[in-house]
């Protein structure tokens, strides 16, 4: 594999992990398992939000209201996996 392709695939993997941690941390804050008054944890959560909210908000615009259920992270992860597969399949071999 080309090193640029490998870099892009790893970058997409890393972004998927960030999305997963964003979802988990938001659940932990929502269910009061983590204290939102903790400055370090809140900064980590805000950094995850700043990294993930632009594509998630774009996806949320086109999703119907599901009564408090947000499936945009799942759709974004599926889109990332599709993009990774397309990159690997159609990357020029050389």
Would you summarize the structure shown here?
The protein is mainly alpha-helical and 94 residues long. It contains three helices and no strands.
Question: Which secondary structure elements does this structure contain, and how are they paired or packed?
Answer:
Elements lengths: L2 H28 L8 H24 L9 H19 L4
Helix pairs in contact: 1-2, 1-3, 2-3
Tell me the strand percentage band: under 5%
Order of helices and strands: HHH
Q: Helical residue percent?
A: over 70%
What is the number of helical segments per DSSP (H or I, 4+ residues)?
A: 3
Number of E strands: 0
Can you put this structure into words, describing what you see?
With 94 residues, this protein is mainly α. It has one domain (3-90). 76% of the residues lie in helices and 0% in strands. It has 3 helices and no strands. The chain has helices at 3-30, 39-62, 72-90. Helix 1 packs across helix 2 and helix 1 (3-30) runs antiparallel to helix 3 (72-90). The longest helix is centred in the first third of the chain and has 28 residues, at 3-30. The chain is flat and about 55 Å long. The mean pLDDT is 94.
């Amino acid at each position: 594999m080309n090193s640029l392709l490998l870099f892009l695939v790893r970058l997409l993997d890393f972004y998927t992990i960030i999305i997963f941690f964003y979802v988990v941390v938001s659940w932990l804050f929502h269910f009061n398992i983590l204290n939102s008054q903790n400055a370090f944890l809140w900064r980590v959560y805000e950094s995850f939000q700043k990294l993930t909210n632009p594509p998630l908000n774009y996806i949320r615009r086109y999703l119907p209201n599901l009564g408090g259920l947000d499936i945009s992270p799942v759709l974004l992860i599926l889109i990332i996996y599709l993009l990774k597969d397309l990159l690997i399949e159609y990357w020029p071999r050389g």
